[in-house]
Specification:
Elements: E1 4-8, H1 12-18, H2 23-44, E2 48-55, H3 63-86, E3 90-94, H4 102-115, E4 122-129, H5 131-147, H6 158-162, E5 175-178, E6 197-200, H7 210-222, H8 231-237
Parallel strand pairs: 1-2, 1-5, 2-4, 3-4, 5-6
Helix pairs in contact: 1-2, 2-3, 3-4
The structure holds farnesyl diphosphate (FPP).
Length: 238
């Protein structure tokens, strides 16, 4: 089983359009899938689930859709936080949340606080997140420390940079899933996906469920992760 699963939840818009519904109906249906996937991951022993809910680039969508996504994020969080608390899920939002309304920022902080002591599944919602943003903000922190004389440039390593990324305290994703048929990473966890197993499916996010998720886990269990080594070395370690 993967310890950390990261998902790009794609296909909400097409799901709605296929049914002659407005795009927001797809996003609303997508929230139900989030709940289901979270519960299956919890049951299957996944420790961390990271979901791409809103990218740094999603602001480019029509104003109406952006507004609707913000409202949906607010209502879903507001409605689900007690359930997360009860189900022992710890919530963390990653990304530049300073761009959100103060009402949403407050709710995020409050939801993180309410679930802070839970030690079951860690649910990370990437909101106004971009892999390039994450690396840039980490580089800025390093530069500030160098400028303040707290860090020697020659001390900068993969570890010091990784320690300044959005979630330095959890392991990189083992399994990346993208629904909706596109085969790209779309500026998600660029640094953290370096050795992640990638899994794609055509199923649109609102139709994604237990069957597809268990298939992804089964395919993952058959992959050999070599991290740069050769097969014989990895087999020797087993
Ligand atoms: C991509 O589908 C989906 C999004 C940009 C939004 C994802 C948001 C949710 C599932 C709901 C909110 C989530 C939480 C955690 C409260 P798309 O719109 O790009 O679909 P398309 O490719 O078919 O147009």
């Amino acid at each position: 089983m993967p310890t950390h699963v990261a998902i790009i939840m794609d296909g909400n818009g097409r799901w709605a359009q296929n049914r002659g519904k407005p795009r927001h109906a797809g996003h609303r249906a997508g929230v139900e899938t989030v709940r289901e996937v979270m519960e299956i991951c919890g049951r299957q022993g996944v420790r961390i689930l990271t979901l791409f809910a809103f990218s740094s680039e999603n602001w480019r969508r029509p104003k109406k859709e952006v507004k609707m996504l913000m409202e949906l994020f607010f209502t879903a969080l507001n409605r689900e936080v007690r359930r997360l608390k009860k189900r022992n899920v710890r919530l963390r939002v990653i990304g530049d949340t300073s761009a959100f309304s103060s009402k949403l920022q407050k709710l995020i902080a409050e939801s993180e606080r309410i679930t802070r002591d839970n030690d079951g599944l860690l649910l990370q919602i990437a909101a106004n997140y971009g892999g390039r943003w994450d690396m840039t903000q980490a580089a800025r922190k390093l530069a500030e420390q160098v400028a303040a004389g707290e860090l020697q440039p020659e001390k900068i390593s993969e570890e010091t940079l990784a320690a300044r990324l959005s979630f330095p305290d959890v392991p990189d994703p083992d399994l990346f899933i993208r629904t909706g048929g596109e085969m790209r990473i779309s500026n998600f966890l660029l640094w953290q996906l370096a050795y992640t197993e990638l899994w794609f499916c055509d199923t649109l996010w609102p139709d994604f469920g237990e069957k597809e998720l268990l298939q992804a886990f089964a395919d993952y269990s058959r992959r050999q992760r070599r991290f740069g080594k050769i097969a014989e070395q990895v087999e020797g370690e087993c």
